Amino acid sequence: MKTAAIDVESLQALHDTLQRFIVAHEKSDADTQRDILRQLVEREQAAYQRKIEALGELKTLMREVRAARGVDNCVASLITAFKFAAELRAIAQDELDDRETAETATSAAHQLFEQLEAIVPENSAILLDLLTDPSPAVQASAGAHLLHTVPEQAIPVLEALDRHASGSPSLSAWFALARHKAENGVK
Amino acid sequence: MLKFAKILHQNKGVAVLNGAAATVFLVLGPLPASAPDVSKASPDDPVHPGWPAGTPGGLGGKFRPKDGSAREAGEAAINRVALRRAIRTLLTQALSLPLEVAANVIPALGEAADVIMVGQLAATFAEFRQLDVDTKVALDFVANGPYTLDDLRVSRASEAFSSYDEFYKGSPVAEGLDKRFGPAGNGYEYHHIVEQGGPNATAIAAGELHNTENIVRIPTLLHQAINREYGAITSETDGLTLREWLRSQPFSVQREKGVEIMRKLGIVR
């Protein structure tokens, strides 16, 4: 027997789903209970699939970075991979709730940014352009990395993200600023 | 890059699809919207709020979160915690799987939920009923928030204790009380704004940790959401969690950041 599709995308919707499960249990309606559980399994499977695909793409992009020849190609592949890793990190924390993916993506983004810094000059427009990327996750990661070299450009971006963005980009921006202030003795 | 962006931004609504429909969705990705959203962001538009021109970071003219975003962020964080608990219950109670291998067996679960025994459903029911209580408490709490820190205190009087146990139970010799503050109530827990565990247990005086200004009463799901934020990787550069960094900071910094996390989750204003 199929019951209505479950919706767990908001707290109220999740509460309603739990209520449906409880009512079904009280009525000894095992089919409805199983159907709700099965849909939860499917939801988890879909999230897992999304994680596997994203990690696979990250691996592909990292491979392309290693295979790139010539400065322009290297920089282009590093930028592409960095943006992907930064976004994946935010998605892993805010949507997939997956620590393993978040750790992998964070580490990848950091490595990629260090490689970029090693081959392009400090204050390069290539790096500064990342601060105006449409993705708040990319801005936050780039801002945190550029905080020590170009604080005058990175700080306003991180402050704006801290105030106006949501989820992990906001938290990352706030944390980068708090740590920077603590390390530099700023009140 | 388009291909990668598509992978990252698949519609979260996949969860509501069943069986073959879900498979099709996973292969094809979300269907295109029937019409592109042509609305424009404006600083004065409450429906499509935007950042004003000149906002640093190239944000000017782009959409910004609607007012009340702290509250929305809080609700989203609670929802993630509650959903995680539901999934954990499903895996450990209904499907009798040890939690540590749960993630690896997800793809192979198949129709396992369809053959769950009635006895296992009963165990799941008990867990889901408590989660239902916790969810209802959190919904009510959020609907009436945000609060001041004073609102969340267990007592307006400033009282310090030598341990959490004493805060909870009271001293057996003091006025013959069996309990001091006792249980926080169904769906609620006590939260230390400056954490009591780890290095804090020895580096900070007990009276500073276990007092009526540092311990507040909040819904269980919000407490778990705060703990999740503390445990999340917060540093872009070295993978440190907020908890790992805060533990190296003085009490005043830990308290300030603890309150800020509560503010970001829409708990306090």
Q: Largest sheet of chain B, order of strands side by side?
A: 1-2
Q: Residue-averaged pLDDT of chain A, rounded? A: 91
Question: Spans of chain A with pLDDT under 50 lasting ≥5 residues?
Answer: none
Beta strand % of chain B = under 5%
**Counting H and I runs of at least 4 residues, what is the number of helices of chain B?**
12
Distance between the first and last residues' Cα of chain A: 62 Å
What report would you give on this structure?
The complex is a heterodimer of chains A (187) and B (269). Chain A has a domain at 1-49. Chain A is built from 8 helices and no strands. Chain A has helices at residues 11-26, 30-67, 71-96, 99-119, 125-128, 136-146, 151-164, 167-183. In chain A, α3 (71-96) runs antiparallel to α4 (99-119). In chain B, α3 (69-94) runs antiparallel to α5 (118-143) and α3 crosses α10 (220-231). The two termini of chain B are 40 Å apart. Chain B has helices at 2-8, 19-28, 69-94, 99-105, 118-143, 149-152, 164-169, 200-203, 206-209, 220-231, 242-246, 251-264, and strands at residues 188-192, 215-219. With 269 residues, chain B is mainly alpha-helical. A two-stranded antiparallel ribbon of chain B has the order 1-2. Chain B folds into 2 domains: 69-143, no CATH class; 149-264, no CATH class. The longest helix of chain B has 26 residues, at 69-94. At the A-B interface, α1, α2, α3, α4 and α6 of A face α1, α2, α3, α5 and α12 of B.
